[in-house]
Amino acid sequence: MPPVRIESLRWAVGILLGTLGAMMIITPHHFSSPIYGALRPFIAFLGIAFILSGIGLVTIQSMRQRRSIVVVTHLFAAIEMSVLAYSFVPVASWTGVMTFGVLALGTAIAPFLPRPPGQLPSNCGIDLLMFVVGLGAAVTGLSILALPGLYTGPVFGALLAPLFAFAIPFLVGGTALVCVQIWTYLPRQVHCAAHLLAGGSLLWYCVGAVVPLNAWTGIAYYGGLGTLVLTWPWLESRLRRVEATSLQTRLALAEGVAICLSVVIVVFLVDVIFATRPVTEPVDLRAWNDLSFVLLAASVLMAALAGIVVARRLGAPLKALASVADKLAAGDVTAPLPQSDVAEIARSGYRATHHPPSQWSGVGGGGDRARGRVLLHLGRVSPNLSQACGRLK
After folding, report:
1. What would the pLDDT profile of 173-213 be if each residue is shown by its tens digit?
2. Which segment of 17-26, 33-42, 165-174, 243-252 scores lowest on mean pLDDT?
3. What does the buried/exposed string (b/e) look like for 143-157 if buried means 16 or more CB atoms within 10 Å of the residue's CB?
4. Which of 245, 272, 291 is the last residue of a domain?
5. Are residues 15 and 160 in the same domain?
6. Around Cβ 277, how many Cβ atoms within 10 Å?
7. Is residue 76 part of a domain?
8. Do 4 and 125 form a contact (C-beta atoms < 8 A)?
9. How many CB atoms lie within 10 A of CB 88?
10. In Å, what is the CA distance from 52 to each residue of 19, 21, 168, 260?
11. Gap between the Cα atoms of 227 and 220, Å rounded
12. What is the pTM of this model?
């Protein structure tokens, strides 16, 4: 079996669950549609669970965790999406059952799939997110064509004809997306065409069928993932330049999560207060909740941007040290030393007591003495470079 990349699935599913969870807590009136009748009594509990699972998925991607924690996090997220898929059964919303069911299955098996041994090129291996989304679209399109009787319920009764118009794009686009994930050696033009077909079919279904039904879980899935699938051939190479475990990513993620949780908790408490206290004037809670959600999104975006700016400044010396270590390991002793006022780096002075410069520079001429001075200064800047220094002794 070819190696499977699951990083994009963790990010996408984590953001999807976090967004739906925030909406369940902040704007519960968006789930007043008959589609969510089975979920409505537990909407607040599910919102909290969705947020926690979303945070867990992006956290295990940016911070390496034990395998047991990774497996449990994936299973909890899969269980929650399975509950969401099962809640659509009583109203015969089979498109939701299939799409979220396939996504839940992919999330559950992700930790057990063979991983690439190292960094693969962007066109090598199976991207699990694209495979799962394509499979869900293909299964949905096939079910509409082969089992039209499933879509005669109250939800899709008035939209039966449009659904048949969506079935063929779903089947063709989803199948094409799955195929280009399996046969990665196909030309780039074929990959782009498959993503355009699959992403376009998802967005078309979102606008033509999901939005009129006021199904916000579908809007998040078909609209959000459809846009991602559509633009993936052009985004993938850029997104892979972002190191998930870097200081910059961790700080931006931590700040965004902190702001998100604080706003969600505040809004939830305010809603509880407004719902329980007697009022003399009617309060438009829906308008207030809509405004709160917009403020939440703006706060998270601003927090993430601020975190990126701060993290770049803090991470620049570490990046420079790593670059110097790479050059030293390659035998280049002319690499310039980074200058930093960061306290952690300033305090990481290293006294080469076990390896004095006389042992490094030998008895030779100026080149050896310069080499000894460079290695000594690198040792004083960061003890983490001692291994690279030792290789050049």
Report:
1. 999 999 999 888 888 899 999 999 999 999 999 988 888 88
2. 243-252
3. bbeeeeebbeeebbe
4. 245
5. yes
6. 8
7. yes
8. yes
9. 25
10. 11, 9, 37, 11
11. 10
12. 0.71
